[in-house]
Specification:
Layout (H helix, E strand, L loop, with lengths): L1 H38 L3 H14 L4 H13 L3 H14 L4 H13 L3 H14 L4 H13 L5 H10 L5 H8 L2
């Protein structure tokens, strides 16, 4: 009986692991094509290829994130938020994922949700200039003058357009 199990493991396990490697190779191939389309601003084609990459590897966090970005630039903000949330669930330590979800929430006028995402991004990376800038603009939009402090911090941390927003919103 032991020989049967040993033979079973020997014959079945290697093909399963090869199947997984093939899926990962397919996922990477689709992802590469998707990124080419994304960089060429062919967002719909990119979304289709990112989807294929995710179908080949459901844990492909970068594919979820990039598909979310493509959806964001295609004005599909709710769907983008879903992809960013999946990416966050797979990698909760990425400040970029939170900030990008905050950007999509901003487009849906969910300013409080977007501020929460910026707060989390800043918690993960204390000098995240873009998160400070977005949070500052959102706070100002909600009538909170503390937004100017965030814009100043964004500038201190290297956000190039901080002075433009400070001149426009902070007097």
């Amino acid at each position: 009986m032991y020989r049967f199990y040993s033979l079973f493991i020997f014959l079945v396990i290697p093909p399963l692991s090869c199947f997984s490697q093939n899926d990962n190779a397919k996922a990477l191939e689709f992802y590469t094509t998707a990124m080419e389309n994304y960089n060429a601003t062919n967002y719909e084609m990119a979304i289709a290829d990112f989807t294929k990459a995710i179908e080949a590897n459901s844990d492909f966090v970068e594919a979820y994130f990039q598909r979310g970005c493509a959806k964001h630039y295609s004005d599909k903000y709710s769907s983008a938020i879903e992809d960013f949330t999946t990416a966050i669930n797979l990698r909760p330590t990425s400040e970029v994922f939170y900030k990008q979800r905050g950007s999509s929430r901003t487009m849906l006028k969910d300013y409080k949700g977007a501020i929460e995402d910026c707060d989390k991004a800043i918690e993960l990376k204390f000098d995240y200039d873009k998160a400070f800038a977005l949070r500052g603009i959102l706070k100002i939009e909600l009538g909170d003058v503390e937004g100017c402090n965030d814009l100043m911090k964004a500038g201190e941390f290297g956000y190039v357009n901080a002075n433009i927003f400070i001149k426009k919103y902070c007097k």
